Amino acid sequence: MASKIALVTGASRGLGKDSALQLAKKGFDIILTYQTKKEFADEVVKDIESIGQKAFALSLDISTTLGFDQFTSEVKEILDSQLGSAKLDALVNNAGIGINESFETTTEETLDAMTNMHFKGPYFLSQKLLPLLNDGSSIVNTSSGLARWSYGGYSAYGPMKAAVDSLSRYMALELGVRKIRVNSVAPGAIETDFGGGVLRDVAEFNQQLASQTALGRVGLPDDIGSVVAFLCSNESKWINGQRVEVTGGFNL
Ligand SMILES: NC(=O)c1ccc[n+]([C@@H]2O[C@H](COP(=O)([O-])OP(=O)(O)OC[C@H]3O[C@@H](n4cnc5c(N)ncnc54)[C@H](OP(=O)(O)O)[C@@H]3O)[C@@H](O)[C@H]2O)c1
């Protein structure tokens, strides 16, 4: 049987990388993206190939729609020439960074950057990719625990993730006619390069967040990727339009 195919944005590192690997373990071929770290993306391609699946890395800047037509053509070219003219079965909108800045000093430029990266980018990239998605496919948008609770310094970031949760519901509603499911995954605090890796590298901060978590630690990338892979698979075929929080029980 032919492999299913997933496109995962921002999979050179962190949560996107783990999602791509977990999807490959479930039998998906992967098209993954990076923004600057091509060498990291090439390593992820090798890791996926060693699992026994095909993988291809493409460059993408999610913060501007200018490159989306070109990117969509590149995805189509890979599907046609390398993957037997198949279409995508899953899209994981994951790419992005956070900014910690007080409400008082956040500039219009910073707010625009967060809007473009976390809301406008996934909105129009998903729209562009619709013709390349199979009916019955699954879209996972990456939200954040910060859409449910507030943490000082994230006023330009958390509300964008709340918008992602809302967008997932609207997409699920309108794309249901094609049996395309759309859900959000909302990770809590996870040890990645996010925020300069502060959560992973500053022990005091790490412990403070662990103490607010029912399971007593902060998250690791592999706490998230398996949930993303589940939501992309048929095992979750009746989960649609949902925000799935994956935090170990943070701020309950
Ligand atoms: N870690 C957490 O605690 C946490 C919690 C909740 C939600 N999230 C969300 O999870 C997602 C992934 O975060 P992460 O922790 O895995 O971060 P990460 O380790 O810093 O990885 C970020 C990924 O996004 C790519 N990227 C960055 N800017 C981009 C841009 N403008 N266009 C396209 N790709 C870009 C990076 O590519 P390069 O490697 O090429 O730079 C990398 O692959 C983000 O949406 C984030 O908001 C993270």
Q: Could you give a short description of this structure?
A:
By secondary structure, the protein is of the alpha/beta class. It contains 8 helices and 7 strands, in the order E-H-E-H-E-H-E-H-E-H-E-H-H-H-E. Strands 3-2-1-4-5-6-7 form a 7-stranded parallel β-sheet, sandwiched between helices.
Please tell me about this protein's structure.
The chain is 40% helix and 17% strand. It has 252 residues and is α/β, with parallel strands linked by helices. It has a single domain, classed as 3-Layer(aba) Sandwich (Rossmann fold). It has a seven-stranded parallel β-sheet, sandwiched between helices. Helix 1 (14-25) links the parallel strand 1 and strand 2. Helix 1 runs parallel beside helix 2 (38-51), helix 1 crosses helix 8 (225-232) and helix 4 (108-129) runs parallel beside helix 5 (158-175). The radius of gyration is 17 Å and the shape is globular. It starts with a strand and ends in a 6-residue tail after the last strand. NADP nicotinamide-adenine-dinucleotide phosphate is lined by residues 10-16, 34-37, 40, 60-63, 94-98, 117, 142, 144, 187, 189-190, 192-194. NADP nicotinamide-adenine-dinucleotide phosphate (NAP) binds at residues 10-16, 34-37, 40, 60-63, 94-98, 117, 142, 144, 187, 189-190, 192-194. InterPro entries: NAD(P)-bd_dom_sf, SDR_fam. This is Short-chain dehydrogenase. It holds the Pfam family adh_short_C2. One of its GO terms (molecular function) is oxidoreductase activity.
